[in-house]
Amino acid sequence: MTTVALYTLGCKVNQVESGKMAADFAARGFQVVDPSEPADICVVNTCTVTHVSDRKSRALLRRLRRRHPQAVVVATGCLATVGQASLREMAEVDMVVPNADKERLAELVAGRLGIASRAAPAARPAGRTRGFVKVQDGCESHCAYCIVPLARGRVRSAPPLEVVEEVRALVGAGCREVVLTGIHIGTYGADLPGWDLVRLLELLLERVQGDYRLRLGSLEPLEVGEGVVGLMSADARLCRHLHIPLQSGSDRVLRRMNRRYDRAFYRGLVEGLACSIPGIAVTADVMVGFPGETERDFADTFELLRALPLLDLHVFRFSPRPGTAAAEWGDLPGPAECARRSRQLLELAADKKADFIRASVGGVERVLVEERVGERWEGLTDTYVRVVLDDDGLEAGQLVTVRIVGAAQEAAQGKVVCRDGWSAGG
Ligand code: SF4
Question: Which domains does the chain have, with CATH numbers?
């Protein structure tokens, strides 16, 4: 049997797509092997969001050629889309399949190898505690620093009933949490008249029965509307966690980034969420080192984030991406300055997480048991807090009711009070 190994770089969407490629290869009679094993075909699902991801993608392609001189090396993903020509010139690469053809990658590889194959219905994933469903692709926002619209193209939404089927299949296979992911999920339905993310969520919550929860991927600030908040308040199956990129707390920088909101809007949004949905967890992306970012701009960002009730921050450094508006802009803060700003934000993030976990002590949460770590179990609350459990007799994939009895820097300590179903009393 012809063997294939898939290597994935980048975001959750890339991970979901690699999972689909693996299922398609398997359905066509290939044997999907672990990336640590030698394979006849090596597929690299590349990323190009920063110059570092570019470098890592190319280095992996070269390493695979060195390690597996006889293998067919296939590059797909975002670097294979925006850097197609340069990847085709790499002697190490046999096939380059841009994002637009990614869904047919297994078919194209089979064709290239002269292997007759046809797609069969994908088998249900077994025993996974969390599943990911890609509901949308593409972005048309063109933030000044972002290469994603060039790599992913126009907004395309998955047909609603297909999403229902995928979520139902995952819940049926035992997944108790399904993450709805995409490149810009807040624009779900922009290409489907009468549809938007809220209507999709309503359909899912109506059509998919069972004890499970839905978690939303990243949502842009202007897309967290009353609909999402209302559903999150009304239905406990919708995780009380929102990842809302801020990028900068300086109105001047936000305008230059082509981000269509200001710091007052963002502050009002997060404070409003904290009032409307008790215990909600908000996490944010923030970028340092954007062209022209002054010490004053950074201070505005830091002060805003320090004042907001956030669970965590994802801190990124500006990386000039070819073809984006900001790529040619000069006046970049120096590397030492960027390092200092990142460090300050990461320290703030650690303090915020510790504060959030401390505030949850005494409360009762539903925890998805995920893995055994040594003698203990670890799981995740709907607010995206890791919880350590000493209880015996637990299983991966169980949704249990837990009283939070302690707090550490990165995780809470919990005690199971109910193993089946929800028990508010605890
Ligand atoms: S919304 Fe902006 S940052 Fe997000 S993918 Fe689109 S262009 Fe990139």
Answer: 3-113 (3.40.50.12160), 127-239 (3.30.750.210), 244-261+271-359 (3.30.750.200), 364-418 (2.40.50.140)
